[in-house]
Amino acid sequence: MHVKLNIDNRSPVYLQLIEYFKEQIASGKLAMGEEIPSRRELARTLNINPNTVQRAYREMEEMGLIYTDGNMPSKVTRDETVIQKVREELVQDALEHFVSTIKTLQIPLEDIYPLLEKTYREKNGDKADGGEAK
Amino acid sequence: MIEVKNVKKSYGRKAVLRDISFTAKKGEITCLIGVNGVGKTTILNAIMGLTPIDGGEILIDGKKLTKETYEKVAYIPDSITMLPSMRIKDAFAFMNDFYTSWNEKRANELLTFFKLNLEDKINSLSKGNKMKVNLLLGLALDADFILMDEPFSGIDVFSREQITKVFTSHLIEDRGVIITTHDIQEIEHLIDQAVILDNGIILKSFYPEKIREEEGKSIIDVLREVIDR
């Protein structure tokens, strides 16, 4: 797993880590059952406190996003309902962000639909798998 | 746990530490932040008993500094104290003679970690590599706490990068670290606790993750708020 994350100095690092993993899992970049880096490995890659990584992993484990068997490396959940829930949550967050941005511009909803569709198609057309830019 | 309680210290009429209290826990990195001359090094010296204090007390795992507690703490000063003519292997031999807590196995691991050689002569090394040897000698000791005075000061960017990697490596294990710095940016996300010092007093001590979560502020934001310049 190649972790690339720009850390914001003003929000808790453990939450940024959880958010990052949610995105990776929801988009399928991290597959079900895939191993994730050890706490120390991730701390080293991102130059962050190992206790912070520990906290993020503990919370993700409580959320059921990852699981650990004994001394084995932690892995992404195999529970599809959990992954589906994360996807829905991320979509909801993105929609709320979009709506609150667009609301300040006072555009009627019916004017947005065609624009949304056009932008979506344009963006999708540029990318091989409809996901992240290569 | 290292407890610094109401510590006071003056040099002549000049009060260097006016009323210093903070606690550094095992398994955590505590960072003393402040510009040069605010008393950071004096605090480390006081913890090691290298400078007598005028008031207050310092406890290491609940006990005052004795020979036994002294061995629990490794002090890494801001520059190397070995003779410049020594090779690294001579420094190893010296540490081995001097400290019962010297751990040769960890010393060799650190040597590899920092890409140094036993045959390297200390005075032929760059400033950055000298600092690495300095850190190595302290980190190799089997101490529960490690005090580091300005390990990033005046060295090149690659050495700084390599030194920051120590903090996330197994070489720190679950030991407690107290580090002083006047430049927090380098290690902003590496520390557990921040203690801001100015003029011999603590302006604020806090856990940065908590401040980020509860107030949406970075360490630098907090520094700007509390240091009045």
Protein described:
The complex is a heterodimer of chains A (134) and B (229). Helices cover 58% and strands 3% of the residues of chain A. Chain A has helices at residues 13-26, 39-46, 50-63, 80-103, 109-126, and strands spanning 66-67, 75-76. Chain A is elongated and about 55 Å long. Chain B has a single domain, classed as Rossmann fold (3-Layer(aba) Sandwich), CATH 3.40.50.300. Helices cover 32% and strands 26% of the residues of chain B. Chain B has helices at residues 40-47, 67-70, 88-98, 104-113, 127-139, 157-168, 208-215, 219-226; strands at residues 2-11, 14-24, 29-33, 55-60, 73-76, 145-149, 176-181, 193-198, 201-206. In chain B, strand 8 and strand 9 form a beta hairpin. The chains are: A mainly alpha (134), B alpha/beta (229). The interface between A and B is medium-sized, with 19 and 23 residues.
How would the blueprint of this fold be written?
The complex is a heterodimer of chains A (134) and B (229).
Chain A: H1 13-26, H2 39-46, H3 50-63, E1 66-67, E2 75-76, H4 80-103, H5 109-126
Antiparallel strand pairs in A: 1-2
Helix pairs in contact in A: 1-3, 1-4, 2-3
Chain B: E1 2-11, E2 14-24, E3 29-33, H1 40-47, E4 55-60, H2 67-70, E5 73-76, H3 88-98, H4 104-113, H5 127-139, E6 145-149, H6 157-168, E7 176-181, E8 193-198, E9 201-206, H7 208-215, H8 219-226
Parallel strand pairs in B: 3-7, 3-8, 5-6, 6-7
Antiparallel strand pairs in B: 1-2, 1-4, 8-9
